[in-house]
User: Fold these one by one.
Assistant:
Number 1:
Amino acid sequence: MKNILKINSKYLMVGATLALTVLGSCSKDFLEEVTYGEVPPSEMTKAENVEKAIISAYSVLNGQIDGASNAYNSPASNWSFGDVVSDDCYKGGGGTGDQNQIHQMELYNTTPTTYDVERKWMALYEGVKRTNEAMKLLNASEDFESGLKTQRNAELRFLRGHYYFELKKIYNQIPYIDETAETVSDYARSNTEFTSTEIWSKIEADFQAAYDALPSSQEEVGRPTSFAAMAYLAKTYLFQEKWQAAFDATTIVMGGDYGLMDDFQSVFLPENDNGKEVVFAVQYSVNDGQGSNYNGSIGDRLTAPGGPFYSQYGFHRPTQNLVNAFKTDAAGLPVNDNIDVTETDSVDPRLDITIGRPGIPYKDLDVLYEANWARDLATYGPYGPKKRILSANSPYHVTVWPYVDALNYYIIRYAEVLLWRAEAAVELGDLEEARTLVNQIRERAANSQYVQTLDGSGNAANYNIGTYDTVWTDATDAMDKVRMESRLELAMEGHRFFNLVRWGIAKEVIDDYLVVEKTRRSHLTNAAFTQGKNEYWPIPQEYIDSVDDGLVTQNSGY
């Protein structure tokens, strides 16, 4: 388990048993009543029980909603929703039949009955429901200390904002239900009751309210701060192309106690996962007494890379296209030619921190990653995940089934805030501000510890990364550079597809990707992205069937 920064926040672990004694989770019925478990209704507004209800609202952050191990169908990291459907990753696993519904997502054959589409919807609306119920209990509590009540309400506003933000970016036109809901029928709502703009406004309002009332720091590290709320508000502005608002919001965040860690690889160690670069994260823990280590990264348990130290689940596999994106020229700048990297090519050092490549040492295990680590090598190629996989020597890594670890999932990290600001700066015409921000991130990568050969005699590959030393004068070119940096820095963190969609280039990028990638990977032969449809997932058919006829409108194309 983690033993740093956790003594006062042990009940913020995402699957905390204590939380689940208060509010039950949704079953397959999308409109199931909230159950109150072991606490009598007459006792629910007592302060200690309200706190449990609030913890229950946190507990859905990891995507686990019913005590089952299949949070990988609704992962907090969005590895299937944000990476597998992009140009960054393949599904992986034991062939196309293994979790075939994710394979269909990869081919853009998603349907309203796709299991993962249902599970993700259920998990996020379970989060909404728990936050709403906790708000009502909190407001009704007479013995809850006044100042703390204000803070806890702000935390709930933050959590609800998060759950709705995820719903909006995945499903787009969604039902919106707030704490005034009293009965099951109140959750059977139309998804056209509010316009897209109105839904964004409601999400903004939650994050603004959270910012206004939250403290700038928290003793219990799993709880959001005012700066985390402002960062999320910046992201909300970014998705709506409110460039000045986004830029101004990042100014506030940059005034907080954040910064880039000196070493890129160290960002992704459990010892540092509440460090200065992490703005808000899902808190994970293992070996803490929770059954099957469900407080750990249960949604990512299929991503174990195989080999002599790990289970061979073999999902979330980097594409050849992503590997090639890390190639650099003589000046250390991205080449972006999508020609396969060779042993003599120079590459960005983040490549071998992010991706397991044959012939390159894997973590600190004193062993080279080999192609045969990869499950179904013939289908998915030789590469494996690395950035968010812990060393098998780590005490925060579980060696038995299921494969989980205690590395938090970073919903927002500071490098991403800098990239948002750079993007907004380009849109506002301040290209030099954008260049400076991108160079900060590249300088950190350049000054990081590079992966070394097994004998420690030198670098494991021809690493070369430079900064942009020429003034940026063309806005289109500047934006291309910011977007490329976003891909390299955030690779395999679940953001790529959503960025392509909000940039308005998903069709263009994915079509170009598939033309070449189909010649490399036959499992993509039938993949085809349909503009105006595949930018979002369908509204689950089970939800449509659970409410009155005609109340819910299916997303375009489904």
Number 2:
Amino acid sequence: MGLDDDAREYHRSEPPGKIEISTTKPTNTQRDLSLAYSPGVAAPCLDIDEDPDRAFEYTAKGNMVGVVSNGSAVLGLGDIGAQASKPVMEGKGVLFKRFADIDVFDIEIDEDDPDEIVRSVAAMEPTFGGINLEDIKAPECFEIEERLREEMDIPVFHDDQHGTAIISGAGLLNAADIVDKDLADLDIVFSGAGASAIATAKFYVSLGADASNITMCDSSGIITEERAAAGDVNDYKAQFASEVEGGDLADAMEGADVFVGLSIGGIVSQEMVRSMAENPVIFAMANPDPEITYEDAKEAREDTVIMGTGRSDYPNQVNNVLGFPFLFRGALDVRATDINEDMKRAAAEALAELARQDVPDAVVKAYGDQPLKFGPEYVIPKPLDPRVLFEVAPAVAEAAMESGVARTEVDTDEYAERLEARLGKSREMMRVVLNKARSRPKRVALAEGTDEKMIRAAYQMAEQGIADPVLLGDRETIESTTAHLGLEFDPEVVDPDADGKADVYADRLHELRKRKGVTRSEAGELVRRDTNYFGSVMVERGDADALLTGLTHHYPSALRPPLQVIGTAEDAEYVAGVYMLTFKNRVVFCADTTVNQAPDAEVLAEVTKHTAKLARRFNIEPRAAMLSYSNFGSVDNEGTRKPREAVDLLHDDPEVDFSVDGEMQADTAVVEDILEDTYDFSTLDGPANVLVFPNLEAGNIGYKLLQRLGGAEAIGPMLVGMDQPVHVMQRGDEVKDIVNLAGVAVVDAQDEDE
């Protein structure tokens, strides 16, 4: 099937459409229903009657946007009417939810009269926290938005006007910087004079462009003062009438610094591009076919051409989804009465700044592993970059507060953390650890220091103040890679071949391993050749506080050097690998998933203690379950006795100050009703959040099934039981995984100091 048929099947498959309503509170018992509806619902109703602002406290209003259209200007389809526009409006709701966790009702109004549209929408103000106008033709859209903004006390935003303005504005800020031109001096030409073009031109002026340097063209050519005086253009177009004799688009583009296309495909030739000023910026945003193709624009010139389109298959996509979800997120969360120019400008500036930052691996992978580094081919962030939410929304919220349209105040730092939590429980949990790490950063040795991911992770650790990274490896290679990545970063590098401590470290390794068959000569070779040994001795001697490795090694070979050199903690005989799995409303720690193949009762007990201690680093009070296929003696054999005996050891240990029980089946451990009803004698005071598997095979299988089928996000493996902080990553981990483990390692090191 082609794209059209695939889309039809996508929309008609059960249930039809793309959105549904789901409940956010329990509705399982008669009492639940009496709270949700009659008679309990009367209490919040009366409270809202007394104080209307309590609607934000008691209802979904504060997270609800109405997407309103009459279908008069839908995508590239034109006036197809309200009913036919519904799939588009549902799609808009999907984007709001996917990118900013905002709920949406789509409202299709079968009406062309602006007065009736304004009346209908204004009457719905009690329902919504904001209104997104969509696909309403010009010039009516201008009047409708202006009047609704005046009449309503919630934000009203016409995305077709302002979305493109904000996203392309962010690109323009960066493009002007790259080609070393001042915004106020840019000669800017617009092809198209509809709602989007007019709003974009006005927004560029608010960013610093000079209105007298903007030339706007419609289908009849340059909009001149003569045409405006003759009534040939409407009042909105007339705002950008030029003091010239006239001409067509080709005339306007001659000598221009910037071309902004919001018209139709294929109307710009290579000759027109060649007539522009040096190092031109071309935003050809007609969809699906731009005014000139990316290839033709690039081939037309030998100097720098910064090219953006509305398409995802070319660099610098101007995609409105980078704007409206996050504008509304910030506006809703401070209960703004408007989305004003300050808030739009803040969004554009935040997007521009984000494009200058290192790009997460997940984003790079989502776009086919193409290089994404600030420069002519990357002046606008990608829509799938999760950081847009907690970079743009706080900037918008802050601008709302500073400009006086916010009805409530937020602490922007705390607010950014709350937004990260919306992207997943794992971000919320890691924020706890990373904040602790920032309070007292420690020196973290990165064994595979020449690896590109390690260098990028080191940059992020230093940039975020999480750790003081030390890259181990060939200095020249590390410095060359850092420069190639374009990172403004002067990392600390320790080169085992050139560092004066190599001999001292070799002596120490020999001292530790001489009765294990390691000669002084072999120790020298190991220290100089294997940064895992060098880094392990570095940590053992106190020259670094923690070690990360494993990115390019098999797990056993990466774990062996730190075990040999650093060893287990004073109160530990064994180490274990733990994964933290985060679900929407739950966190569990799974052990052991990477180290001990067939643990006995003593090993299981010790691993449980280590894992409980780790859980507390994440501010989780541990409740541990020893897992089996048996429930409290229902099966009695050697396999089920081991976890049962481990529980006895833990119950007899005076140092154990957390609840632990077993042996028990996995569902018994995590389902509260089973624990309370069938096994009410259990010492667990709630569902288990530390799951200790009976052997490595079960642990590894179990956490991976939970991750893949249960939709959990996994952080780890985190190594517990070492004498000093060491974490061994999985091969192929992403930069964010390295940074997360560095944060855990720093908190480990902080605990060592206490």
Number 3:
Amino acid sequence: MDQRAAFDQVVKPEILNRIALRHRLLSRMTLGFAAGAMTVLTFPPLSILLLVPVAYSALFVGLRDLSFGRAFLVGWAFGLGQFGFGIWWIAESFYVEAERFGTMAIPAVAGLSAGLAIFPAIAAALFAEIARRGAMGSLLACLLFATSWTVAEWLRGHVLTGFPWNLAGYALVDYAALRQTAAWVGSYGLSFLTVFVAVLPGAAAMASGRQRLTISLMALAGIATMWAVGTLRLQSDAQQPPGVDLRIVQGNIPQEEKWAPENREATFARYLELSTRPGDFDVLLWPETAFPGFLDEDTEARARIAAALPDGRVLLTGVPDRVPSEDGTRYFNTVQAFDETGEILTGYAKHHLVPFGEYVPFRGWLPIERLTAGLGDFTPGPGPRTLALPGVPLVAVAICYEIIFPGHVVDDLFRPDWIFNATNDAWFGTSIGPEQHLASARMRAVEEGLPVIRAANTGISAVIDASGEIVARLDTGETGIIDASLPSARPPTLYASFGDWMLLALILASWSWALTANATAHYRRMRKTVMQRSG
């Protein structure tokens, strides 16, 4: 055989095969990127529910027959689309001080998106490897995909302080009955069920005949079951309202103006003017760092607050705080409570701080400045805490970013009657960020069975009842107040009692059911075959 013939018969086919494999991988990565970007349309403010099965089924189908490494790349492309379009609003915070941080906006968001995309990549690779090693039916494949996805989401919510933003289950937050499942299994459990049902159409598309019909009916049954269970919860009686009137103040101070010394008096005066408008209230609520200074050190400011508070009323406001220590001054991001005398009743220090916003990780090694103004890094508080205030139901406090963490908002030993979420989304302008942040707050209400009251500097301030429904809101960019009664709490949910153990129970129960059904079907097929042969 001459060299030309050897090339045509051996080398050339191998080269063409490699080109085809690379083209196939590139096509699936492109499909994965587009499907990941599509998931952003499933979250608030759009919440297009029909795109949920399209996006996740596209990834599910695109992973078939791929090796571990290739599946990782396809999953990473999906994550890059999901986070690249889903968290672009973070770039807005870099432009608050554009002269210092503006050039970092695109590289920072691109790098964060690429890093977060590793988690969908892990899910995809784990699914593809297990599916490739063992033959399994469509149902088990869907369960494996949903399990892999949920494990990766859970890891994303915990690794390196965690970032559980836009969990798959949040596609259901605008659908009252469907989101109620989180009361039993939490947001991670809701993601598991959402993804499982979402990939059933993909499995049906790859099946044929009777199996296709069975899988399609199972998808419809899953949606119907979640809707029915959620509807029953919505119809159940909540506890009696506590009879407490709230006033939420949204000062709407742009972030670039908030800390300018020349604007301090105008900012404070705006909050006082809004707080003293006609109307009755028992609790006055100001957002995160509403007062641009150390309020406990400012006797005059506290006297002005006391004059604005009717007798027996309480103010909860976000303020920075500082405490001298042997190692120097420590700074805290806090919510402090004041009575009508201007005295501090109690307070809470934020324990889940924002990396690079409130502190710089590995500060000794990373030559990076914080995005927020201040004299030093914030120190984390001890953890979730329930505050007892005179004449006010017990309250838990979550400051800004803390509200996104399932199961880490409420003190398990002292259950509160409501959650106060003081936040400042002014960093993100009129982007989709505040809407997505609000979605997390609504899911905490469902999980805990507690109303969540949100005071935001520039919006979105809201009153959220214990089923996650928005009772009242002030949108981004509005200046004003919300006067509303505190909604009633519900009895402790299963998730509030057992946390993410409910997720584990859900996954184990689902696999037990599926494996039993698979074994039963296999036994029937074998029995039928034996009977046919013996007959």
